[in-house]
Amino acid sequence: MAPLRPNSYAKSAMPDSDAYVDTSVLAAYYCPEPLSSAAEAALRGIDTPVISNLTLVEFSSLIARKRRLKELGARQATEVLHLFRGHTAEGLYRRITLGAEHFIQAQSLIETMTISLRTLDALHLSVAMKENLPILTADRELASAAKRLKVRAILIA
User: Where are the domains of the chain?
Assistant: First the structure.
């Protein structure tokens, strides 16, 4: 898989220069899945993909789960994690550190009880909201919750 090179590929129809990237998109980009081509096109269509330190942990957990479920072999899982860490170290993603304000906002989003939000999704949405970024996701439930909260969601399908 070729590394992402922000600004070096033709723009897709996506109008944003930056977007917060949900782990579901990264999973499709780094692992063979039906949405892999769409994930790659979406990531290449933005100047600066943005992730958080939460994304790093969630991505590692996802790869470990794929390994346990035998969706990835041990070598393949190690290679995926190594590639993702390399891309992160090279600065291909702008990384945001979660602070207390993100957790407070995520808690508030959950406490509205009008939108069904999983804990990690609430945290991802709080980052996108605080940074005023659209969220790029392959998760229909997250995209729906984002739209209800007036956060621009870009759903890959």
Answer: 36-96, 98-157
Residue whose pair of structure tokens reads 């990237």 in the numeric block = 21
Bridge partners, 94 (sequence order): 50
Q: Just give the CATH number of 98-157.
A: 3.40.50.1010
Are 122 and 114 in contact, with CB atoms under 8 Å apart? no
Q: Specify the pTM.
A: 0.86
**Radius of gyration in angstroms for the set of CA atoms belonging to the chain, rounded to a whole number:** 15
pLDDT in tens, 28-81: 999 989 999 999 999 999 999 999 999 999 999 999 999 999 999 999 999 999
| DSSP string across 50-118 | EEEHHHHHHHHHHHHHHHHTTSS-HHHHHHHHHHHHHHHHTTSSEEE---HHHHHHHHHHHHT-SS---
| Cα 11 from Cα 41, distance rounded (Å) | 9
Q: 28 burial class (0-12, 13-18, 19+ CB within 10 angstroms)?
A: buried
Burial class (CB within 10 angstroms; exposed 0-12, middle 13-18, buried 19+) of 4: middle
Using a 10 angstrom Cβ sphere, with 0-12 exposed, 13-18 middle and 19 or more buried, the burial of residue 24 is buried
